[in-house]
Write a structure and sequence with these properties.
The complex is a heterodimer. Helices cover 38% and strands 19% of the residues of chain A. By secondary structure, chain A is an alpha/beta fold.
């Protein structure tokens, strides 16, 4: 058994052993081991040459990682909190994402940006956001959202080996989650979702930390004879539409759950895909559960209330089951 | 103009030819802009030829460069690819970026021209990373980051200066002070100092040079390169020059006077250099005319070829595949 945080660390370590081009850079990634501990022990094994502590200059060091990647390195940039991605937005959006296209494929940007997202730690509005939608509308960037130790390691290795820039959104609420993590290298395909619980009556589509909540909700729903199929997207971009559509054809009912605000959230896009591709299979209107359309609060009660949880997921699933089109 | 050692007469003619080709290429852009023959905007560096020609003359095959939205001249001086540029301006599939990049986004990785970037100042952190790469793999060479006086006010440039100094990276900060960031004069928008003096604050050695004197540019860049390689430290160069044309094709130049422009035209980098070569007997007036004509003809031939292929754009499916990262074809050059 390993924790989610240990799994991330192991994924990086194995790739650094395998491929000399892989390096890590960011704030306090060296002796300190990274803000959350994801790079702990790497500097001891790989030295300062490959584990580079950077000053608080996200724009410059993320831009530097883009340049280094274009010339043949495979850098992993750690952004200490995903909220700080705003400071790295130009190198990511205008350079990492566009350079391969603008140069007509003369260059690729094999870069991983790993960063902790999400609420639940009392870090308040500037250290708790779910930033995925800020980058979803930028062609050229892939986004993965590991939800457990097993996929945290596999997706990290896949992200490092990918030729394009990948934003690896780890959820800080999951760092201590324990799970089975196979020894050695393994990859998980980027762009492939996983049915993490099969079911017949309703499809619950989710990602990141909400996968845990949705699984807990599905278990309780089974006690009242509702069979929920839970799909963990794992990759937001590319999106595995086939797995979703296949499930919707079977169940005809859909609930989409994520922590980011519903307004402008991924749920809206997924609902659109389903409406366009599987409308005639729908037995009830699609529902999306997202965070409240406000910044994340400091107060623990408000913070918990503004994010979908198990009870709300159960209640909404029941509503969908009681509706007809 | 002071002469510099070790430069052959052949090289001197090449330098003149490069400057003249750059001038001819961009004068033709202006003409094409006037008749609305080109799609989209562009930014010419007429008057700044000594800056890009001199710097690129000093860079060899181990070195890399990244330049700006005003990058035609850097690209030409680095790669010599006039045809690729003309086609890119017309957006044809024979452009060096197959017409997907356009004037602001030239790139030729094989010739170590990393890219031009349209985000002012943003090429500097990319160059920082390229320099990190050289150091990481213990490769020879330096990286030149060309940017303007306007870009010198970007936070990411200061951040990059700090990191380059702190990590001892082989990076030449090459600031072309052409006096204007669109309409904002550098004399007013760089507070209390010059761009180069700011380098001192980061522990980076610097020099301010006459960016219209190609000999001075070359000798200063040679010294800077030697310093960077020997000391394993970055260097900051400010080349003072003047942008003859407006910022882009829509600029009406309402923020400055003809009187201000006149003295700069007196010290036109190409006229100065021609005069210098003639005075030293490297070329005579007929030969100068010949080089001028040759540059002009080369440029026109390239534009004619591009104009003739105007409608030969990249296949839509190929463009999408490149964007989605699924294209595995080879770079197609006009034979």
């Amino acid at each position: 058994m390993k924790s989610y945080l240990e799994a991330i660390n192991e994924g990086i370590r194995l790739e650094m052993r395998r491929d000399e081009r892989v390096c890590v850079l960011g704030e306090d990634v060296g002796v300190y081991g990274g803000g959350a501990g994801a790079t702990r022990g790497l500097i001891e094994e790989f030295t300062e040459r490959r584990v580079m502590d950077m000053p608080i200059s996200e724009t410059a060091f993320t831009g530097a990682a883009v340049g280094a990647a274009m010339l043949g390195m495979r850098p992993i940039v750690e952004i200490m909190f995903s909220d700080f991605l705003t400071l790295a937005a130009d190198p990511l959006i205008n350079h990492a994402a566009k350079m391969p296209f603008m140069s007509a494929g003369q260059t690729s940007v094999p870069l991983v940006v790993m960063t902790p997202m999400g609420s639940g730690t009392g870090a308040a509005a500037q250290h708790s956001q779910s930033p995925e939608m800020m980058f979803m509308n930028t062609p050229g960037i892939k986004i993965v959202t590991p939800s457990n130790p097993y996929n945290a390691k596999g997706l990290m290795i896949s992200a490092i080996r990918d030729e394009g820039p990948v934003i690896y959104l780890e959820h800080k609420g999951l760092y201590n989650m324990k799970g089975e993590v196979p020894e050695g290298e393994y990859t998980l395909p980027i762009g492939k979702a996983s049915v993490i619980r099969p079911g017949e009556d309703i499809t619950i589509i989710t990602y990141s930390a909400m996968a845990k909540e949705c699984l807990a909700a599905a278990r309780e729903l089974s006690e009242i004879r509702i069979s929920a199929e839970v799909i963990d997207l794992m990759s937001l971009k590319p999106l595995d539409e086939e797995t979703l559509i296949e499930s919707v054809k079977k169940t005809g009912r859909v609930l989409i759950v994520h922590e980011a605000p519903a307004l402008g959230g991924f749920g809206g896009y997924i609902a659109g895909v389903i409406a366009q591709r599987a409308f005639k299979y729908l037995k009830a209107p699609i529902k999306c559960l997202g965070g409240e359309n406000i910044p994340i609060a400091y107060n623990a009660v408000i913070e918990r209330m503004q994010i979908p949880g198990k009870e709300k997921i159960i209640k909404t699933a029941e509503e969908i089951l009681n509706e007809e089109v | 103009m002071e002469s510099i050692g070790n430069i052959t007469a052949g090289s001197e003619k090449t330098i003149l030819r490069t400057m003249l080709t750059s001038r001819a290429f961009e004068e033709e852009i202006c003409r094409l802009n006037d008749i609305h023959a080109l799609h989209g905007t562009n930014h010419v560096a007429i008057g700044q030829e000594a800056g890009h020609t001199g710097l690129c003359f000093v860079l060899n095959e181990d070195d890399w460069i990244i330049a700006t939205h005003r990058g035609h001249g850097f690209y030409l001086a680095r790669t010599g690819d006039v045809e690729g540029m003309a086609h890119e301006m017309y957006g044809t599939k024979y452009g060096m970026c197959k017409g997907l990049g356009g004037s602001m986004h030239f790139s030729d990785m094989a010739n170590h021209y990393i890219c031009s970037t349209g985000i002012v100042g943003a090429g500097v952190p990319i160059a920082l990373g390229a320099a990190m790469n050289l150091k990481y793999f213990n490769k020879k060479g330096i990286v030149a980051a060309a940017f303007g006086d306007g870009a010198s006010n970007q936070g990411m440039v200061f951040e990059s200066m700090n990191i380059a100094s702190m990590r001892g990276l082989p990076l030449l900060f090459y600031c072309e002070n052409n006096q204007y960031a669109v309409s904002s004069p550098s004399s007013r928008f760089i507070a209390n100092t010059t761009a180069a003096k700011r380098a001192e604050g980061f522990g980076i050695a610097s020099a301010v040079i006459d960016g219209n004197d190609v000999n001075e540019v070359i000798s200063a860049c040679l010294k800077a390169k030697e310093y960077i390689l020997k000391e394993q430290k970055p260097f900051y160069m400010e080349a003072v020059t003047y942008r003859y044309a407006g910022h882009s094709r829509s600029d009406r130049l309402v923020y400055r006077t003809k009187d201000e422009e006149a003295p700069w035209r007196e010290k036109d980098p190409i006229s100065l250099y021609e005069k210098y070569l003639i005075e030293r007997g490297v070329i005579d007036e007929p030969e100068a005319q010949g080089i001028r004509k040759e540059a002009f003809e080369r440029v026109h031939k390239a534009y004619l070829s591009a104009k003739a292929s105007e409608n030969e754009h990249i296949d839509y499916e190929q463009a999408v595949a490149i964007g989605e990262g699924t294209w595995e074809g080879k770079y197609e050059k006009l034979s």
